[in-house]
Description:
Blueprint: H1 8-34, H2 39-61, H3 63-74, H4 81-84, H5 88-94, H6 103-114, H7 118-121, E1 122-125, E2 131-132, E3 136-143, E4 155-162, H8 166-184, H9 193-208, H10 210-223, E5 230-231, E6 235-238, E7 242-246, E8 252-253, H11 254-260, H12 263-284, E9 286-288, E10 296-299, E11 308-311, E12 317-319, H13 327-337, H14 341-351, H15 362-368, H16 370-373, E13 381-382, H17 385-395, H18 416-432, E14 435-436, H19 438-445
Parallel strand pairs: 5-11
Antiparallel strand pairs: 1-3, 2-3, 3-4, 4-7, 6-7, 8-10, 9-12, 10-11, 13-14
Helix pairs in contact: 1-2, 1-8, 2-3, 3-8, 3-9, 8-9, 12-18, 12-19, 13-14, 14-15, 17-18
Amino acid sequence: MTELPRRAAARTARLAALPLGYAGRQAVGLGKRLGGRSAEVVATELQQRTAEQLFRTLGELKGGAMKLGQAMSVLEAALPEDVAAPYRDTLTALQDSAPPMPTQTVREQIARSLGEGWQDELVWLDGAPAAAASIGQVHRARWHDHSLGDVDTAREVAVKVQYPGAGEALMADLRQLARVARGVAPAFPGIDIKPLVAELQARAADELDYRLEAQAQAAYAVAFRDDPMVVVPEVVAVGEQVLVTEWLESPHSLAHVIRHGTQEERDHYGRIFVQFLFDGPARTGMLHADPHPGNFRIIPGADGRPGRIGVLDYGAVARLPEGRLPEAMGRLIRIALDNSGDDLVAGLREEGFIKDRIRVDADELVDYLAPFVEPARHETFRFTRAWMREQFERINNPRNPSFAMATKLNLPTSYLLIHRTWLGGLGLLAQLETEAPFRALMEEHLPGFAAT
């Protein structure tokens, strides 16, 4: 597979086959159980094979299919260990890789976006992609700034090129994935796929607009230019389907730390990640809303010591209405932290999280929201996979009194990306198993949270 499949019918057929494959494996599983194999062994095997098919298909199709896979991979820490372990490598690989498109197609896309004289600026282009994502891939190149004179002054750049037909494929994929989500959902306990797809649909247009992405990245680059822990590459040039930025030299991403990092590295980079998420809105009025490990690159320190983080991909950002995270968000988390159920119900109703005619039990609401506030109950908090799984299993347990709470809560549009980022951030910290002073960071950076 060397480029995006252009025919909608072919893409739709592959996605539509996912629940059929799951149903077929269920039938085979029933036969194995009748043949004497235990239900537990058969169920684990069924989930493993379904996951392998799903993530292989999502990665190969790219577009909205791969975007869903990347979004789900951030929540991998929430899956039960016996389900997650067999295909953890598949999930983490999806965060950093995808099949490349032909070099000639790349050059045609660059010419179309930057003009026929593009080779006057891009004096060298590596034909092999350095990285790939859901709607585009990145090539290493050298850019000649004519204002500096001789070609020897050319600087290293990253050229992000959008796949031909990416917009059409992205929207078609997301529509089809919305239809098949229910069919494969049983293979992924604890992850509600359908609302995840709906949220991706709502934000797809922004992520296809490279000029909009360039504006966001440029603002972040200015805001973090002198930051000792965070590096944001400068924007060099932008066209309709091409974005050129400074090259960021980095041996690997946070996915490598998740797999191989020492505890010192996990704590160090996890704290920088949290600090960046809170600092971004305060400095730029925007929230970087795509917290999967591939977007956070490691820049090692001297003598092998933990270093800095380079942050990539500004296609998904929340442009905050008041230029900061909502004051109500911090205030409501503080109320939940104080276990003031009645005040929490009133505050959530005022913000539109609970509709006027909906009645909720205050104690059950506090219990349901516990995972979002528990890290702030302690001076430092150790995020772990076990903790993340426990929270997901608890709120997805039909015997839990707060189980039905999800059907009673409404997520206002202004909180969509904030909610995704918060949940994805918790998932990433759990994968890293980071210990962080979460409470102090919230008191310093989250409007409305500090005790009065």
